[in-house]
Design goal:
This protein is of the alpha/beta class and 271 residues long. The chain is globular. Helices cover 45% and strands 12% of the residues. The structure holds adenosine monophosphate and magnesium ion. The site of magnesium ion (MG) has 3 residues, from loops. Adenosine monophosphate binds next to helix 5.
Length: 271
C-alpha cells in the first residue's frame, strides 16, 4: 500500500498477513495462491517487455529499494519478481556494514555511486535507509546526526528523480511470529544454514525499536517524488504480486517508445 506523503505511519495499522482481494483462509488459500501465481507470471512477462523498452530508450533508469527486517524476503522478492529480467540491464546491489573507505565518506557516497545508469534497473538490497534504521537503533552516530538524515535523503532522492531516475521504495512488512518461523527454518535446513546468522537473533530483540525507526522513515521519507510502499510480506506469493504490480505500473506510466532510426532505413539493402 502506498504511503500517502504527509501521513503519519503506524505499522500496527498494516496487517503483515494481508492478502488483498485474495481469500487466504482454509481451502480457498490454494486457489488464491494459484491465481496470484498466474497473475505474477503475466506481470513478469510484461516486465520483461518493459525492461527491453527502457533499455532501448536509454533515457531513464529505475531504482528499486528493498528494505525490511531480517528474513522479510528481500532476497526472495528479487529472485522471483525479477526472474524474467535481462541480466544485461539489471544490477542488484546489497548494502552491508560500511567498509573502511565507505565509512570515511558521507553516508550517501556509496549509494549515489550505485545508482543505475540510464536504460538500466537497479535493485538495492538495503540502502541509505540503514543509516536511519540500524544506525539509529544502535546509536552508531549521535541522535542529532541521524535526525538530519531524513531531509538529506529526501533531497538526494529528489535529485535522482529530477535526473530521470524513477525511485520505488518497498518496505517488506512481516510479523514477529513469521520472522521466528523463517529464522527457525534456517536453523533446521542444511541448505539454509548459510543464511542463518546469530546476529539476526540478537537483532530480533530490538524488534520494537526497529518498528519505530521504520515508522519514522516511512512517515518522513514518503514523498511525492519517491513514495514508500508498505508490502504485506507474511505470505510470499502476495508479497511478490504486490511488488510486481507496483513495478510494472510505474514502468507503464513512463509511456516509453522505441527510438526512431537516426536515418531512413527503409531503402537500405543488406547484401
Ligand atoms: P544482510 O542483509 O543479511 O546481508 O546483512 C547486512 C547487514 O549490514 C545488516 O545487519 C545491516 O543492518 C547492516 N548494514 C547495512 N548498512 C549499514 C549501515 N549503513 N550501517 C551499519 N550497518 C549496516
Ligand atoms: Mg541477513
Amino acid at each position: 500500500m502506498l504511503v500517502k506523503p504527509g501521513t503519519k505511519v503506524a505499522l500496527k495499522d498494516f496487517d503483515p498477513a494481508d492478502t488483498g482481494p485474495f481469500d487466504s483462509s482454509g481451502k480457498a488459500k490454494e486457489d488464491a495462491r494459484e491465481e496470484a501465481k498466474e497473475k505474477l507470471g503475466k506481470l513478469i512477462s510484461e516486465l520483461e517487455a518493459l525492461q527491453n523498452l527502457l533499455y532501448a530508450e536509454n533515457k531513464r533508469a529505475l531504482l528499486i529499494i528493498l528494505q525490511g527486517m531480517d528474513a522479510s524476503g528481500k532476497d526472495g522478492t528479487i529472485r522471483k519478481v525479477m526472474s524474467g529480467l535481462n541480466p544485461l540491464g539489471v544490477q542488484v546491489v546489497p548494502f552491508k556494514v560500511p567498509n573502511e573507505e565507505e565509512a570515511e565518506h558521507d553516508f550517501l557516497w556509496r549509494i549515489h555511486k550505485a545508482v543505475p545508469r540510464y536504460g538500466n534497473i537497479g535493485i538495492f538490497n538495503r540502502s541509505h535507509y540503514e543509516d536511519v534504521l540500524v544506525v539509529r537503533v544502535h546509536e552508531l552516530v549521535p541522535r542529532k546526526v541521524w535526525k538530519t538524515r531524513y531531509e538529506q535523503i529526501n533531497q538526494f532522492e529528489k535529485v535522482l528523480v529530477a535526473n530521470n531516475v524513477v525511485v520505488l521504495k518497498f518496505f517488506l512488512h512481516i510479523s514477529k511470529g513469521e520472522q521466528r518461523k523463517r529464522l527457525e527454518a534456517r536453523l533446521h535446513d542444511p541448505t539454509r544454514y548459510w543464511k542463518f546468522s546469530t546476529k539476526d537473533v540478537a537483532e530480533r530483540r530490538f524488534w520494537d525499536a526497529y518498528q519505530e525507526a521504520y515508522e519514522d522513515a516511512l512517515t518522513k521519507c514518503s514523498t511525492d517524488w519517491a513514495p514508500w510502499h508498505v508490502v504485506p510480506a507474511d505470505h510470499k506469493w502476495y508479497r511478490n504480486l504486490v511488488v510486481a504490480e507496483v513495478v510494472v505500473e510505474a514502468l507503464r506510466k513512463l509511456d516509453m517508445h522505441y527510438p526512431e532510426p537516426a536515418e531512413d532505413l527503409s531503402k537500405l539493402v543488406i547484401k
